[in-house]
């Protein structure tokens, strides 16, 4: 989600001090860097395995949205890189770290972790970034870390931090539908795409000069969550970790494989399949996206239970996403236990 600088209360009662604003504008003291900062991944995770880049800086200056490869992993007007965990299941609260050495110029904690899609969720107006930290890297460079977990912020304004220092944990605070870090880089307030090293307004076809220290994998479509459920799952519950154990009762009314996909394009074909404990096909579902693509898509494949209980044992679910001319661009498997 976009982070608007004036929306983060800097001081007591939400007052913003002129010294802090000067730092954010690159006019005050900080960590002196003559060149753009060389960025460490701001989450302690492995991209494509334990975390995913689920939204990117929108490098399309027009009404559409394009990521740094001119692909679909961006939403219109998005100003940061979103690094997501899939769900807030136990053990999946990723550690947020400083992407480069810097001075903490603002920090906020105390906002609850709750998806904005949850019925009755409180308003986050003017606090869309949630629990957050802003670092000044000198020479007008700043980085912003949004949506961290309540009670996890480990730094305070005025503190200098080295690269890789723990700032907090990924959470669900602010204007977010799923657990992720919104990481934003600016130079004199202008949004910079860390994958291109250029302002977002320069577009996606520029010669890249990435700010990342090491190349990061690119996932053209993200299999964000995949798992088993014995009741009708929905995206909010999945992302909240409700079905994380992949365990289904033998008397459950249904047995389904769910998938939470990001950046599905028109003409893609998604296949969901389940094999039973004996290795026999249980169900296969093929979904062609002939009419349109989706920024986010949630789907199911499974069966309703008859009079007998489900056979106990381990079931295997598989997902494949095929794209014309490219073959399989995403695949993932998961095991679920019926008992």
From TrEMBL:
Q: Is DNA damage found in the keyword set?
A: no
Annotated M23ase beta-sheet core domain ranges read: 77-194
| InterPro entries, alphabetized | Cell_wall_metabolism_enzyme (IPR050570), Dup_hybrid_motif (IPR011055), M23ase_b-sheet_dom (IPR016047)
Q: Which residues form a coiled coil?
A: none
Question: Mind listing the UniProt keywords for this protein, alphabetically?
Answer: Signal
Q: Name one GO molecular function term.
A: metalloendopeptidase activity
**Statement: the UniProt record of this protein carries the keyword Signal:** yes
Protein name, as recorded: Peptidase M23B
Organism of derivation: Pararhodospirillum photometricum DSM 122
Taxonomy of the source species: Bacteria, Pseudomonadati, Pseudomonadota, Alphaproteobacteria, Rhodospirillales
